[in-house]
Amino acid sequence: IALPKLSLQFLLSPNAIPSVTLIFPNFSLPLIALKFLFHRSSWLIFYFPSLQLLWPQTGKVRSQELDDSKQKFVGNGEREDNFNNTYISTIGIDFKIRTVDIEGKKIKLQVWDTAGQERFKTITTAYYRGAMGIILVYDITDEKSFENIQNWMKSIKENASAGVERLLLGNKCDMEAKRKVQKEQADKLAREHGIRFFETSAKSSMNVDEAFSSLARDILLKSGSRRSGNSNKSPSTDLKTCDKKNTNKCSLG
Ligand SMILES: Nc1nc2c(ncn2[C@@H]2O[C@H](COP(=O)(O)OP(=O)(O)OP(=O)(O)O)[C@@H](O)[C@H]2O)c(=O)[nH]1
């Protein structure tokens, strides 16, 4: 008998709807439906942006897969012709496996390609900790990207594990005519931080293998020397100069 009275009181109160749900369980069905709809819509609102985050990433992986298969199909054709010039920005993290040969041993590297853009910094810094090596890449045709290296160095100091192996790369060295960052500037910066520096080209593959091998070798050496108590750096990697005039060696490390 008391229930309807109670429900009326509750209906008039600001908390009416949850109270009615408690008193009349049969009312709860539409309310649950409402709640479900509400939750579902909020879930959808939260879910859709994350889908949008995933889509371009998938697109990037797919375009790279297509590129790889194109390279296989073309066979020994010039790699430059198959270079993927379509720019799809990395969103958050992109994951790749690369195998390098170090003194006859195959070393599998797990490479986490992080977005360079400032707005993804919170996501990317979360992945620093635990990384054994970090490659900092700037674009030799873009001064800002070089200036940004200082910020990344600071961020690594704050977020990465102590003693993480670092490597500085000046990429796009096939674009000499558009060069904005001189080799000497980067060399100086690398020396200040006590790290190796190479100029590379993802387009012509210049020094790309050398860069990965060098980092892997330094990581191996460091972990080996940690065990043996010796902390000497490995001898520098056999590098090629980016400008075509001198294709012998250029070790800046
Ligand atoms: N000429 C030339 N172009 C390059 C080279 N490396 C990358 N590019 C081009 O530069 C653009 C950006 O390349 P990405 O590798 O996606 O650059 P990123 O720094 O990873 O960019 P985010 O994914 O936004 O972090 C693309 O259009 C590439 O084709 C290179 O060595 N030489």
From TrEMBL:
It is a lipid-anchor. Residues 224-253 are annotated as: Disordered. SUPFAM superfamilies: P-loop containing nucleoside triphosphate hydrolases. It comes from the Eukaryota. GO terms for biological process: bicellular tight junction assembly; endocytic recycling; endothelial cell chemotaxis; exocytosis; Golgi to plasma membrane transport; neuron projection development; protein kinase A signaling; protein localization to cell leading edge. Residues 224-234 have a biased composition (Low complexity). It is found in: Cell membrane; Cytoplasmic vesicle membrane; Recycling endosome membrane. PROSITE patterns: RAB (PS51419), RAS (PS51421). GO terms for cellular component: bicellular tight junction; cytosol; endocytic vesicle; endosome; lamellipodium; lateral plasma membrane; neuron projection; plasma membrane. Its EC number is 3.6.5.2. One of its GO terms (molecular function) is G protein activity. It catalyses: GTP + H2O = GDP + phosphate + H(+). Keywords: Cell membrane, GTP-binding, Hydrolase, Lipoprotein, Membrane, Nucleotide-binding, Prenylation, Protein transport, Transport. SMART domains: RAB, RAN, RAS, RHO. Interacts (GTP-bound form) with MICALL2; competes with RAB8A and is involved in tight junctions assembly. Interacts (GTP-bound form) with MICALL1. Interacts (GTP-bound form) with MICAL1, MICAL3, MICALCL, EHBP1 and EHBP1L1; ternary complexes of RAB8A, RAB13 and either MICAL1 or EHBP1L1 are possible. Interacts with PRKACA; downstream effector of RAB13 involved in tight junction assembly. Interacts with GRB2; may recruit RAB13 to the leading edge of migrating endothelial cells where it can activate RHOA. Interacts (isoprenylated form) with PDE6D; dissociates RAB13 from membranes. PANTHER family: LD44762P. Belongs to the small GTPase superfamily. Rab family. This is Ras-related protein Rab-13.
